[in-house]
Amino acid sequence: MSAEATNPEARPEALPELRRRGRTRLDLRRLGRAALLGPTSRDRLPDAIGHVAEAHRAHHPEADLSVLRRAYLLAETSHRGQMRKSGEPYITHPLAVTLILAELGAETTTLTASLLHDTVEDTDVTLDQVREEFGEEVCFIVDGVTKVEKIDYGAAAEPETFRKMLVATGNDVRVMSIKLADRLHNMRTLGVMRPEKQARIAKVTRDVLIPLAERLGVQALKTELEDLVFAILHPEEYEHTRALIAAHAGERDPLPAIADSVRAVLREAGIAAEVVVRPRHFVSVHRISLKRGELRGSDFGRLLVLVAENADCYGVLGELHTCFTPVISEFKDFIASPKFNLYQSLHTAFATPEGYVAEVIVRTRQMHRVAEAGVVALGNPYTATAPAPATAATAAAAADCDEERVDPTRPGWLSRLLDWQQSAPDPDTFWNVLRSELAQDREITVFRADGGTLGLPAGASCIDAAYAQHGEAAHGCIGARVNGRLTSLSSRLSDGDTVQLLLSHDASSGPAADWLDHAKTPAARIAVSSWLASHPDGAGPAAAAPRPPLSVIGARGGGGNAVADLPDATVRLAGCCTPVPPDAVEGFVVRGGAVTVHRVRCATVAQMRAVGRTPVAVHWRATADCRVTLLAESFGRPHLLADLTEAIAREGVEVVSATVEPPVEQRVRHTYTLQLPDATGLPALMRAMRDVPGVYDVSRA
């Protein structure tokens, strides 16, 4: 692309180790000259993209290669005369990017767009020409890649570039696939640039593109980008790691023998499996050396076991754990619980009699394809839903349409990024929040009260759920129920929680400043920050100034109809659990000789028993009346206390005492101690109190 690229031979001491093991390295300089000088027959593919065709056919045997021939001819003709900074013909760059994608298994449309991805930006070729020759899909992808790169924003270039990249990616993930392959080739050929420019490009790659590759599941690109960045930003650690790998190369590797043992075990068990040794890449070796200290021979690689079916994965796991000594702490099941980037595998490790620890990855061949190539391996997501327009008129109309395309491969985190990037007030805020979001390495799913789901990063709170579900209306959120229990907005959510958000109807309500301490998602942080900036006087809800609660105290007290098996003992019902008939209860003698009655499940009972206090038997009188304490949670509004008292009175219940706490964030808490003529009327009383407008929860104390 327009991003500068340089001579791949400029750093011969670093790059050979970084090449993916087992892949033939092409001489792109030779291919580029052949493209410029060699004649091309019109009835066969040009020799310069023979490797691309070979790699593509390996994944798609029935693919029509004629469109690749036409795309290459257009790219070669339009880029003719253009050279890279290293002196190579420019056509070598789109060729290399396309080969990377072909090796990952990209479908023909992606490869066609990859060959043409720089033509509209750097040559006289127009989008209309691309659309007329190759159809709407190719045009759409080329346009998306072009929009990412063609504008120079000076100091804000990187934030604005990646904001545009996200928008383009959201409309078609194949745009991001081409961008990642483009960056990988540029990183491979970064050697002749000034060190400071190498470092700047490497930092952006580390902070944004590597996390994006991880989230899109393209591990093959991610690992090579990590190694290239590692060599530039951490040269001393890189050299140390290179020396470790070089020293290991001269020693006996125990992993092939361990792999033979695993093959024998699986063969005896009747499980058809392919077992291969996968050497670790540079960054992986560096990380494992930090984790384990001195490395042994088995630490430089892992065993990969490939099987046909999901059930075979667990069969392999059972055999390994039966025939070897498993390291239980290393077991992870990403088949039952896939990662957010589509990754599925079983991870385990076992110890050998010689004392080696071998790490093992077990997956099906389809899982392996997706693990290596991520969304690239999923093919064209629009094959059935978005055919190319049949006429030039319909094509033009489609090109002018700004409506968002529905992408079945778009993960939830990408949809969230697309939502909040529109609200980011400036490039710096967008850049900082983007990096924070991409740093999250795990995602949870919570269920909404209406049956829908929300995808959130691990560690998200109810505040994040509120903004994910309600947008700016979440400014009025005053509380939440998680799994049916009332909780604060700062509560962290776990995978599988059910959350019901409570919103105030007061238009003047807004978030508190401390919400920023608990908000994790960019959408929530940007929305809260924007509201606080526009309300400098803090008009949002704040903790009320302390003031004494309003209390109404009745005349009755005592133990209701509870009777202790102690003559003449004074009986009191405990306020911590407010027992009522027919609750199972126990009593304990307290200071002054009185007996306090608790429900047997009350925490105080366990504490009393723990300190050696002897319980006193307690039973209920035959009379049905009882005393109970209820808590009513509600929104603040005029006449609420009067309406609640009226509802209680209609049930024929006597108020012994009532306490109304000061409002906090527009929520009011009422505590009532009530004398019921019949304990069986308690459920009806609680329903009547919940029916009072503004009351959202009633529970026993």
Note down, in words, how this protein is organized.
The longest helix is centred in the first third of the chain and has 21 residues. It is elongated and about 105 Å long. It is built from 26 helices and 21 strands. The strands form five sheets. Strands 1, 2, 3, 4, 5 and 6 form a six-stranded mixed sheet that branches. The N terminus is likely disordered. Strand 15 and strand 16 form a beta hairpin. It is α+β, with helices and mostly antiparallel strands and 701 residues long.
Count of alpha and pi helical runs? 26
What is the percent of helical residues? Answer: 40-55%
Largest sheet: 6 strands, mixed
Mean pLDDT: 77
Span of the ends, CA to CA? 67 Å
Q: Indicate the proportion of strand residues.
A: 15-25%
Main structural class? alpha+beta
Question: Any chance you could write out the topology, listing elements then pairs?
Answer:
Elements: H1 15-18, H2 28-37, H3 50-59, H4 66-79, H5 92-104, H6 108-115, H7 119-122, H8 127-134, H9 136-149, H10 157-171, H11 173-188, H12 195-215, H13 219-233, H14 235-249, H15 255-268, E1 274-279, H16 282-292, E2 301-307, H17 310-323, E3 325-326, E4 332-333, E5 346-351, E6 357-364, H18 365-373, H19 392-400, H20 412-421, H21 427-439, E7 443-448, E8 453-457, H22 462-470, E9 477-482, E10 485-487, E11 498-503, H23 522-534, E12 550-553, E13 562-564, E14 571-573, E15 585-589, E16 595-599, H24 603-610, E17 618-620, E18 626-635, H25 640-650, E19 654-660, E20 667-676, H26 682-690, E21 695-700
Parallel strand pairs: 2-6, 7-11, 14-16
Antiparallel strand pairs: 1-2, 3-5, 4-5, 5-6, 7-8, 9-10, 9-11, 12-19, 13-17, 15-16, 18-20, 18-21, 19-20
